[in-house]
Structure formats: structure tokens, C-alpha cells
Design a protein that fits this description.
This protein has twelve helices and 15 strands. The chain is of the alpha/beta class. Strands 9-8-7-10-11-14-12-13 form an eight-stranded parallel sheet. A seven-stranded mixed sheet has the order 2-3-4-5-6-1-15. The protein is globular and about 55 Å long.
């Protein structure tokens, strides 16, 4: 049997499974990592390349990459997506030396970082008195949204959830402590509203929103699917996204309102501007605000680095 020296263990890449990631990285940790990532982006320390997809016989292979010089890490997320499921992997490199630090199974990591981005948006863009969260969609990603927003906005006291499948809704509410909504309109009436669905057509009409709502649209990212109708964008006083470059390719929630004349790209900001204090964002408690989240590689690097460092400290993972 091969025996490894301490030096080799410290220089060998660490393999982290889905269970390893969930053991070492909490929703609050992910919020902190992604918030720091936004600050690094604002400081010009991050180079982020939008996702691109390659066709497979019955699915797609997606690749996205980023380098965060302030954090000291670079990496790429690669995943294959088929009708029967997806598999995700993050490769984490040192940004200063030719060293591969970690190979990370990244389904849980993706849920954590996507939820964390909505958590950061809620921290900076929800009205100060926000106390309720509405969630439209009850899948795997939706749990990450609830966990992260609760971690980022301690004032959230009530979660109201809705999805089309009663059994899935019941399971989600049991797991998260959410209240089942009678219909989607009930979920949409809350202070913070998350859409996290696989729908191709809008699930959130703008007339359902209450004054002061923050909308985090986090489900659609293929350029053909929408979760928001044009009325949402027409009512919004402030609209931002994670990356305008990526949104122009992936975000039908913004592309189609721009094409219809409801919105102009010049009106769309990036969330890092708000986090850094360069743009105010919300002006009053009655403003409706939209954060369109597509998911960027900089978050994968940030969350992956946080998971790697905690795993190394705790002795979690397998050297390879």
C-alpha cells in the first residue's frame, strides 16, 4: 500500500465529495464567500468567463471559469446535463503557482453558492423591515435559497412556498419550516420573492407583487426560459444582475423586456456595484427591486475555495 508523507499530503489535490462539501460549508459560510466575491469583482480583481455549452448526443456539457486574484484562487466548473440528471465538478487552482488544490463534486456547492447570491441580494436590496420570504418552486435549489436568505437576513420570520406538485410542496415545507401557499399569488405577495423553477414561461406576474418587494429570479438561465413577465420589469425601480455580459446571452427575463422596449440594458446594473457602495439600489421601502441571477463562475471559485480551506483545516476529503 502506498504511504504518503506529510509534505505530499499538503501538496496533493484534495477530492471533496458532495457529502464533504455539505459537512464543511454552511449557508452562512457561502453567503460570506459570495459577498466577498462581489467585493473582489468591484475592485477589478476578478476575471469571469460566462458559461458556454457544448452539444452532446442527448444533453449538454457546460463550462464556466473565473480567476479571483485577491482571493488567490482560479477555477472552472464543468458539468454535463441530461434529461435524467446532471453531474457537476469544480477544479480549484492556485492563482499564483501551478498547483491544483482541489477537485470538488459541485451539486451541493452550486446550491449553496446560488442561494448565497440571493442572500447577498436580500441583505443589500430588501427593504429594511422585510420579514417574509415567498418561494415559487420547491426543488433542490429552492432549499438553498431559503437557507441562505435566512442566514443573510435574520429579520425573515415567515416563509411561504408554492409549487405545482402538492407532494413536493409538503415535503419542502416539512424540510424548511415553510408554510404552504394556497396559490402562487400568496407566495408572490411577500417582502422577498424568489423564483427558482424550471418553467419555460413566466411564473410571476408583476401585478402580484406588493410595494417594496425584492424579486430574486434564480431559475432560468438558458436564454429561452422566463420566470418574470414584462410587468415585473416595468414596475421595478431598480434592476440588477450578476453579470451583464452573461445576462445578454442567458437571461430571457431581461433580453425579452429589452427587445419589447420595457427595459434598456443601460438601466441594468450588476450586484457588485451595490455591494461595493457604488450604486445605491433601493431608494425607498416602496420600491420594487429585481435581482436576476444566472450564476457565475466567480461564485463557484469563492465557494469552492471556502470549502477547500475548511476541509483542509478539518481533515475532511481525500488526497488524490
Amino acid at each position: 500500500m502506498q504511504r504518503w508523507t506529510n509534505v505530499e499530503l499538503n501538496t496533493m489535490p484534495l477530492y471533496l465529495t458532495e457529502a464533504d462539501v455539505e459537512a464543511v460549508l454552511s449557508p452562512a459560510d457561502a453567503v460570506d464567500a459570495v459577498e466577498a466575491s462581489f467585493r473582489h469583482i468591484a475592485a477589478g480583481q476578478v476575471e469571469n468567463r460566462p458559461r458556454y455549452r457544448l452539444g452532446l448526443e442527448e444533453g449538454r456539457l457546460a463550462v464556466m471559469a473565473a480567476a479571483d486574484l485577491e482571493l488567490g484562487y482560479a477555477g472552472a466548473k464543468v458539468y454535463s446535463a441530461f434529461a435524467e440528471g446532471s453531474r457537476f465538478c469544480v477544479l480549484l487552482f492556485d492563482a499564483r503557482t501551478p498547483e491544483l488544490h482541489a477537485v470538488i463534486e459541485a451539486d451541493a456547492l452550486g446550491r449553496l453558492r446560488t442561494g448565497a447570491a440571493s442572500g447577498v441580494a436580500a441583505k443589500y436590496l430588501a427593504k429594511p423591515e422585510a420579514a417574509s420570504l415567498g418561494v415559487i418552486g420547491c426543488g433542490w435549489q429552492a432549499r438553498g435559497q431559503v437557507d441562505a436568505i435566512r442566514a443573510a437576513v435574520p429579520g425573515i420570520e415567515r416563509v411561504v412556498a408554492w409549487c405545482r406538485t402538492p407532494a413536493r410542496l409538503a415535503e419542502f415545507c416539512k424540510a424548511t419550516g415553510a408554510e404552504p401557499a394556497e396559490d402562487a399569488r400568496d407566495a408572490a405577495a411577500q417582502d422577498v420573492v424568489v423564483t427558482i423553477t424550471t418553467s419555460r414561461d413566466p411564473v410571476l406576474p408583476g401585478e402580484w407583487l406588493s410595494p417594496g418587494a425584492l424579486v430574486c429570479a434564480a431559475g432560468a438561465n438558458n436564454g429561452r426560459s422566463r420566470e418574470l413577465d414584462n410587468v415585473v420589469l416595468a414596475r421595478a425601480v431598480f434592476v440588477c444582475c450578476d453579470s451583464i455580459e452573461q445576462a445578454r446571452e442567458e437571461s430571457a427575463d431581461l433580453i425579452e423586456p429589452v427587445d419589447a422596449g420595457t427595459l434598456d440594458w443601460l438601466e441594468v446594473h450588476e450586484l457588485h456595484e451595490v455591494v461595493a457602495g457604488d450604486v445605491r439600489g433601493r431608494e425607498s421601502s416602496d420600491d420594487i427591486v429585481v435581482f436576476k441571477s444566472n450564476g457565475i463562475a466567480a461564485w463557484d471559485v469563492a465557494a469552492g475555495a471556502a470549502a477547500f480551506e475548511r476541509a483542509r483545516e478539518q481533515g475532511v476529503g481525500t488526497p488524490v
